[in-house]
Amino acid sequence: MTEATGIVGEFFSLKESTDADLLAMQCGDFYEFFGEDAETVSDELDLKVSQKSSHGSSYPMAGVPLADLTPYLKALVERGYRVAVADQYETDDGHAREIVRVVTPGTLLETTDADAQYLAAVVEGSGSDPYGLAFADVTTGRFLVTDAADADDALTELYRFDPVEVLPGPETRTDDDLLGLIRERIDAALTLHETESFAPKRAAHTVREQFGRETVDRLSVGEPALSAAGAILDYVEETGTGVLASMTRIQAHHGDDHVTLDATTQRNLEITETMHGDGDGSLFETIDHTETSAGGRRLKEWLQRPRRSLSVLERRQESVAALAGAPLVRDEIQDVLSEAYDLARLASKATHGSADARDLLSVQDTLGVLPDLAEAIDSNPELAASPLAAIVDQPDREAARDLRETLADALAEEPPSTVTQGGLFQYGYDEELDGLIERHDEVIEWLETLADREKRQHGLSHVTVDRNKTDGYYIQVGKSAADGVPDHYEQIKTLKNSKRFTTDELEDREREILRLEERRGDLEYELFEDLREEVAVHAELLQDVGRTLATVDALASLATHAAENRWVKPDLHGGDRLEIEQGRHPVVEQTTEFVPNDVQLDEERGFLVVTGPNMSGKSTYMRQVACIVLLAQVGSFVPAREAEIGLVDGIFTRVGALDELAQGRSTFMVEMSELSNILHTATEESLVILDEVGRGTATYDGISIAWAATEYLHNEVQAKTLFATHYHELTGLAENLPRVANVHVAADERDGDVTFLRTVRDGPTDRSYGIHVADLAGVPEPVVDRSRDVLERLREEKAIEAKGGASSEPVQAVFDVSSGQFRGPASADGGGSREDDESIDPETKAVLEELEGIDVNTTPPVELLSKVQEWQAQLRE
Ligand SMILES: Nc1ncnc2c1ncn2[C@@H]1O[C@H](COP(=O)(O)OP(=O)(O)OP(=O)(O)O)[C@@H](O)[C@H]1O
Questions:
Q1: Record-annotated residues binding ATP (predicted)?
Q2: If you average pLDDT over every residue of the chain, what do you get?
Q3: Which segments of 592-666 does DSSP mark as H helices, in order?
Q4: Which DSSP helix (H) or strand (E) runs through 183?
Q5: b/e map of 225-249 (b: 16 or more CB within 10 Å)?
Q6: In angstroms, rounded to a whole number, what is the distance separating the alpha carbons of residues 97 and 90?
Q7: Model confidence band, residue 813 (pLDDT cutoffs 50, 70, 90)
Q8: Using CA atoms, how far apart are residues 191 and 188, in angstroms rounded to an integer?
Q9: Binning pLDDT at 50, 70 and 90, where does residue 667 land?
Q10: For residue 835, how far is its CA from the centre of ligand 1 (angstroms)?
Q11: Cα–Cα dist 337/347, whole Å
Q12: What three-state secondary structure class fits 34?
């Protein structure tokens, strides 16, 4: 391949010089990919491949127009590729190309609205804080460092930020356990950046250079965290996206202050995406009333990273309450905010040198939003007394005003989007520029009046003065008068009805105009660069103001949703008690006539076993509780009549995980690894939601695992837990474990018709109604009838068991509620003997055998029933 010459040859030699997966090389107005890269890109993005011949061979070639590169890059990076970009530049003898940046998931500079996207590095050290992590969001310049006590903690931090790209440090790369977990749980590209950049001394030096020694020393994080930060800086510089300049501030992040909410739970609660993978109907989409993209990002961030600090949450609540109670001012605030542009992005464009005059005008306009906001807030005594006033006062208002004035004094009212053509500045900004413009105007005026003067002075008729590319400025005289022109006229062209002339004076003026225009273009460009630099210098201020506007926007959004949906302010405290009166599910209530429900959890009653018929609302009830706690820890009001919420340190959920089947792991495996994660990570301050644990395996195994997990959560972890189950055996747990209580979602059955009441009541459910749902779902009648028989028999057996006797037809093993164990058959000789073949209706038998390959003669009734339940589940899907 490297035999190739010309641009193909150039492509391959550039490609060899980079470790990126793909190279996009500028060729005129296109970025081209050649060879295998062209094929890859065409496979991934459906680009047309043509052939380019070079040195007698032909090479696949695919190209994208210059202006379209960013979306293509984004799509490639999302698919996990690192793409090098080579730009073409002019040289004295033609042009040359060089790689200007390598785009990776964490460093792709978003030019469109996007969520914060973090680039993370994890470093394993030794000593008291053995792990260190750094997170950088290249779009807003946010840089955070943190220590982690162990691998679990490190993973929790990664969940929290959900980075798009992770750089594991040298030790972490050989730590198969941690690396495996990162691969499995964090949906990020892994990049093995050069080992030396993680070296503690070098890394610490890099970080100090970037952020200043004093700031870094104040961070008080361990060496590994600084190594991680240094490696990120080094990596960002190497990939050459130029974002380093926008990294102006570094902060230590203290994980303890955030609620742990792993990626699984974010998905299960449909916080920003629904189970189907889109945002429609997510919690965020439902409650989002923000006016600006930065406000939207902020609200999303709050939902993804709820807080644990009571004082932080109470401050947010206070602002929300004040805003909710002042609809008119809130409207005004939202109106003002709608004028704001995304300052974090504009700051980043200014530091990259890619901001144009309109961008600076947007900066100017957005800085003007701040005093308007302050004024609106001051106009209402309650708002003025709320923390909102302090939020608006946080940025350096004076500096913001000065910068705004600088821009207002400089920029033209409607500057063009190009920065080299002039027209960017207003009169009075620069003396030299004014002089140039004045002189330019004078000369133009001289030219505009020239025709009249010539007519008058020389008695000519039909005279015009104009300019074109070839002739420059000229005096055009009609044919009839052309012979009478004065001597100093020099003819330059003869046309059919006229002649064109120039004069020395006209030529002088023309040269002057060109000189003036060129100088004006240069001068304006220089002035513009200075102005842009002035804005870039204030990047931190712009980020501050941007953050303030985003925060006010997010708070106003929470207030709007609360006011429009009758949400209430929850009473927050550090204790154990969680009491929600008449709670609703924030998303479901939007589309359904919702039946509100209560929940009460406290020290004595910390674990609810939730039973109820299929489709009765168990999952909705549990998710509703989780969403309400989550919203409360965002600082939001909640959908309830009243709520008292003891703050939690983490929300953990385990619900059906069918979508992961596609990734090659069995449902049961996924279920168990999620369960294991919860049992390891949850604490007594956590909220745990378990929906149907143990269903993915044989009934006995399932019940046993669910039983043991409950005991462990109850006795060891002591987390607040809601556990929905179809295993009625588990309702017996309440008898043995003091903090376990049963609740059920009620249904009404009359004459075989089941009505779902959606009301949660104390106590276990008496029946599952699963067979009723199977019937509704269209399971063949013989199977439904037979399940009823089997169920009936099981109930009888249970009743006899309870009385200490043996059933006429014992099952192979019996679950003993008091011991939580399975026992062998009640009568020694009865085990395994089953009703004879004839008693099973032949149609049912056929279905059982054909669909499931079950030997109906030897399968215990419990398992037959569970098969029927599995069918229901499948049919429902
Ligand atoms: N309180 C409620 N008010 C109104 N509708 C509700 C309520 N709770 C649940 N629903 C609706 O009932 C349907 C079933 O709810 P859900 O999925 O929670 O049932 P489930 O008991 O978990 O079912 P399964 O056991 O089959 O998984 C959903 O469409 C939901 O929107």
A1: 612-619
A2: 83
A3: 618-632
A4: helix 176-185
A5: bbbbbbbbbbbbeebbbbbbbbbbe
A6: 9
A7: very low
A8: 9
A9: low
A10: 38
A11: 18
A12: strand
| pLDDT of 255 higher than 80 | no
Instruction: Decide if pLDDT at 328 tops 50.
Output: yes
Contact between residue 111 and residue 315 where contact means Cβ atoms under 8 Å apart: no
254 φ/ψ angles, rounded to the nearest 5 degrees: -105, 105
Structure tokens at 6: 């010309």
For residue 264, report the distance from its CA to the centre of ligand 1, in Å.
21
Probe residue for ligand 1, chosen from 270, 582, 588 as the CB with the greatest number of ligand atoms within 8 Å: 588
DSSP assignment letter at 425: B
pLDDT band for position 183 (cuts 50, 70, 90): confident
Which residues lie below 8 Å from residue 347, measured CB to CB, with a gap of 6+?
A: 141, 246, 363, 535, 536, 538, 539, 542, 543, 546
Q: Is 501 in the pocket of ligand 1 (CB under 6 A)?
A: no
- Rounded Cα distance between 481 and 489, Å, is 13
Question: Which residues are paired to 120 by β-bridges?
Answer: 135, 166
Cα(164)–Cα(114) distance, integer angstroms: 12
pLDDT 10s digits, 488-532: 999 998 988 899 999 999 999 999 999 999 999 899 999 999 999
Model confidence over 26-78: pLDDT tens digits?
A: 988 889 999 999 999 998 888 888 888 877 888 999 988 887 787 788 788 87
> Which pairing describes strands 597-601 and 814-816: parallel, antiparallel, or unpaired?
unpaired
Question: How far is residue 839's CA from residue 833's CA, in Å, rounded to a whole number?
Answer: 13
Per-residue confidence at 766, pLDDT binned at 50, 70, 90?
A: low
3-state secondary structure 730-784: HHHHHHHCCCEEEEEEEEEEECCEEEEEEEEEECCCCCCCHHHHHHHCCCCHHHH
User: Does ligand 1 have an atom closer than 6 angstroms to the CB of 49?
Assistant: no
From the CB of 620, is ligand 1 less than 6 Å away? yes
Mean pLDDT of 636-663: 80
Sorted by where each starts, the structural domains of the chain and their CATH numbers stand as: 6-103 (3.40.1170.10), 118-257 (3.30.420.110), 571-768 (3.40.50.300), 774-876 (no CATH)
The Cα-based distances of 260 to 180, 305, 474 in angstroms read: 20, 8, 76
Sign of CA dihedral 18, 20, 23, 25: negative
DSSP string, 99-166: EEEEE-TTTPPP-S-----EEEEEEE--SSS-EEEEEEETTTTEEEEEEESSHHHHHHHHHHH--SEE
pLDDT tens digits along 366-397: 999 999 999 999 999 999 999 999 999 989 99
Look at ligand 1, atom 16, and give the residue with the nearest C-alpha.
Answer: 617
Q: What is the pLDDT of residue 113?
A: 43
Written as six digits, the tokens of 489 are 């006229």
Residues 6+ apart with CB under 8 A from 599: 578, 579, 580, 583, 608, 621, 625, 722, 760
Residue 416 tokens read as: 């063009």
**Is the distance from the beta carbon of residue 722 to the nearest atom of ligand 1 less than 6 Å?**
no
620 in Cβ contact with 547 (< 8 Å):
no
Per-residue pLDDT, 858: 60
Q: Is the pLDDT of residue 849 over 80?
A: no
In the reported structure, the alpha carbon of residue 745 is separated from the centroid of ligand 1 by a whole-number distance in angstroms of 9
Estimate to the nearest angstrom the gap between the alpha carbon of 442 and the chain centroid. 56
